[in-house]
Amino acid sequence: VNKQGLLYEGKAKKIYTTSDEQLLWVEYKDDATAFNGEKKGTIQGKGRFNNLISAALFTHLTQAGVANHFERLLSEHEQLVRKVRIVPVEVVVRNLAAGSMAKRLGLEEGWELPRPVLEFYYKDDQLGDPLIIEDHIDVLGLASPEQVEQMKTVALKVNQLLSRYFAGRDIILVDFKLEFGLTDDGQLLLADEISPDTCRLWDRHTRDKLDKDRFRRDLGGVEEAYQEILKRVGGEAHV
Ligand code: C5P
């Protein structure tokens, strides 16, 4: 397939149409934002790290039977994906309390939750991606109740698969965010990216943060953390 016009440029990616109507060409950028765009910067090599890490994780999910948009890598910072209409709902799964949940509920960061917790956020920059409940998704028409059930089932399955996958690499999957999309024929696919930008990943032994919290909280060693995750998922072997 050939790359065609720029369809969309977001905070972390550029998306191009291709000669195949059903496929999109995604270019991962080094730009980093946090707190709904209030904090901006660049993370050297992030585009490459996230492209390769996300490809490795989606490949693992494909092998486990999770329907998703990933087709194949095109280069170290580009990949080919199925074209979908993104459902404007972010699905967050948490295993340990951290980030906004720890803050909102007054919990100690790192508290092990008795069971995985699932949250929905409305993908809307103007509103700052507010936490929403299933009734909101329904009355706003963001997704049907059947699609919500499917997203919940897939999100919990992905949590099981990736928790085990990362545990085998001495990493704790603290929490992560997923996005879903609909194909032209109405199939719901896991979409977007899964990377240190969208997951909290802690070293099992040292509990060092190996994710975007290093950028959000100015902890330093951001590039090294992404490099470490790439190394542990063996992502360099895929391109
Ligand atoms: O900030 P919060 O604790 O709600 O984030 C939960 C998880 O979702 C984190 O792993 C974070 O990286 C991810 N997330 C994301 N994109 C957002 C908000 C959160 O990838 N817009």
From TrEMBL:
Every SAICAR synthetase/ADE2 N-terminal domain range: 6-232
E.C. no: 6.3.2.6
Stored Pfam families: SAICAR_synt (PF01259)
Keyword ATP-binding included in the entry's annotation: yes
Gene3D superfamilies per the UniProt record, alphabetical: ATP-grasp fold, B domain (3.30.470.20), Phosphorylase Kinase, domain 1 (3.30.200.20)
Keyword line: ATP-binding, Ligase, Nucleotide-binding, Purine biosynthesis
EC top class named in words: ligase
Catalytic reaction annotation: 5-amino-1-(5-phospho-D-ribosyl)imidazole-4-carboxylate + L-aspartate + ATP = (2S)-2-[5-amino-1-(5-phospho-beta-D-ribosyl)imidazole-4-carboxamido]succinate + ADP + phosphate + 2 H(+)
Pathway: Purine metabolism; IMP biosynthesis via de novo pathway; 5-amino-1-(5-phospho-D-ribosyl)imidazole-4-carboxamide from 5-amino-1-(5-phospho-D-ribosyl)imidazole-4-carboxylate: step 1/2
InterPro entries recorded: SAICAR_synt/ADE2_N, SAICAR_synt_PurC, SAICAR_synth, SAICAR_synthetase, SAICAR_synthetase_CS
Keyword Nucleotide-binding applies: yes
Membrane-spanning parts: none
GO MF terms, alphabetically ordered: phosphoribosylaminoimidazolesuccinocarboxamide synthase activity
HAMAP family on file: SAICAR_synth
Membership in a protein family: Belongs to the SAICAR synthetase family.
Protein name: Phosphoribosylaminoimidazole-succinocarboxamide synthase
Species of provenance: Caldalkalibacillus uzonensis
Recorded name of the encoding gene: purC
